[in-house]
Design a protein that fits this description.
The chain is mainly alpha-helical and 111 residues long. Helices cover 79% and strands 0% of the residues. It has one domain. The radius of gyration is 18 Å and the shape is elongated.
């Protein structure tokens, strides 16, 4: 027997959340490229590369895990199972916080 179809509003909300993670990943990737390629005068190159790599790594993690999260939530809605707590927001918050610290170091190092 097929899983019951959940209320379409919940399905669409789950899709919007997936797309929000993808948008966030694209934004992080764009920021990583910008730090490395468009700000050559902003501090030492190794720090810029570290910040860019961190942002690109966060983007890869989000893009790589967002589909699985969407699928798991969809399956939970269809079977009536509990929805697990996501870990991606915590990792993203820590990664962005570290990037902010690197950015502050770059800003002060540029003077």
């Amino acid at each position: 027997m097929a899983d019951p179809e959940p209320d379409y509003r919940f399905t669409l909300a789950n899709e919007r959340t997936f797309l929000a993670w993808i948008r966030t990943a694209l934004g992080l990737l764009a920021a990583g490229v910008a730090v490395v390629q468009l700000l050559p005068d902003l501090g030492p190159k190794p720090l810029r590369l570290a910040a860019g790599l961190l942002l690109a790594s966060l983007a890869l993690m989000l893009a790589g895990t967002s589909h699985r999260r969407w699928r798991d939530v969809d399956q939970a809605m269809r079977t009536g199972a509990a929805i697990s707590r996501p870990w991606q927001p915590s990792v993203t918050a820590v990664g962005v916080s570290v990037t902010v610290i690197l950015a502050m170091i770059l800003i002060f190092a540029a003077d």
